[in-house]
């Protein structure tokens, strides 16, 4: 399954576009908006935009212009696995670093240094993973519509890449 979004082209590379999307939030209609961390984050970053590198696939970059509206899609699997890598890997490596440091020394200072080193190792692994999947289409957003992103054919979005 694919998740779709529309955005504006802010940069053009030979094999990819840089697309700026606007964060959307339904926090205004939520009953828990005052006690919700997500609502506070949305208020703090109100109006900020995200820029994504979007692969072109078989489309030539000459088809696109700056400030053009495009529709993009990203595999749901990429979002889920990305969230696990970004949040869980540094946390687990921090805990492992703390445990290893505690085995070789005593005291809270040693455990804290081990946790910090483990966290830094986890963050380095996240960057390594990001560079590894940078051009892997299974994990990257792709352009699915040009000029009229609000008119996206859902059959194209939900189609399996292996089906014909």
UniProtKB/TrEMBL annotation:
Xref: Pfam families:
RseC_MucC
Q: Is Transmembrane one of the keywords?
A: yes
Could you list this entry's UniProt keywords, alphabetically sorted: Membrane, Transmembrane, Transmembrane helix
Q: Enumerate the transmembrane spans.
A: 84-104, 110-130
Give the matching PANTHER family. PROTEIN RSEC
Q: What is this protein called?
A: Protein RseC
* Organism of origin: Zhongshania aliphaticivorans
Gene it is expressed from: rseC
């Amino acid at each position: 399954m694919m998740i779709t979004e529309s955005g504006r082209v802010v940069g053009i590379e030979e094999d990819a576009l840089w697309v700026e999307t606007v964060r959307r939030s339904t926090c205004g209609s939520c009953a828990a908006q005052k006690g919700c961390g997500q609502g506070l984050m949305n208020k703090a970053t109100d109006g900020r935009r995200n820029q994504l590198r979007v692969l072109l696939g078989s489309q030539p970059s000459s088809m696109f212009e700056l400030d053009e509206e495009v529709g993009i899609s990203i595999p749901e699997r990429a979002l889920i696995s990305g969230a696990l890598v970004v949040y869980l890997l540094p946390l687990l490596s921090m805990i492992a670093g703390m445990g290893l440091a505690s085995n070789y020394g005593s005291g809270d200072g040693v455990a804290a240094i081990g946790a910090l080193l483990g966290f830094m190792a986890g963050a380095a692994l996240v960057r390594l993973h990001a560079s590894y999947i940078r051009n892997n289409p299974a994990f990257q957003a792709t352009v699915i519509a040009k000029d009229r992103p609000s008119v996206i054919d859902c059959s194209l979005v939900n189609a399996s890449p292996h089906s014909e």
